[in-house]
Amino acid sequence: MLCYECSLKGNKRDAVGLCHFCSAALCPEHANVAPQVITRQLPLIRRVAMPRKARRLLCETCSAALAQLPEDVVIQHNESRSEERYELVVH
Fold first, then answer.
1. Which residue range forms the structural domain that includes residue 84?
2. Using CA atoms, how far apart are residues 40 and 43, in angstroms rounded to an integer?
3. pLDDT tens column, 21-54
């Protein structure tokens, strides 16, 4: 698989991963590694952030789009059956 961003510029470079949001193939040059906050649901409808963060790859477009969100907004990934949804949650 080839990097989507490189192919737009007429270059051919192998991809090392996919963007977490748009699934574009990315090479090391175009992959932005960002931390992903992991939360757990505790009793009494309380969501707590875990101390360790996961890793996610983002393309430049999605990285810039996420950077425009206020700091108190977290993106949650919810899988229900075969459908994937992302929700914005204000903390």
1. 4-90
2. 10
3. 999 999 999 999 988 888 888 888 788 888 999 9
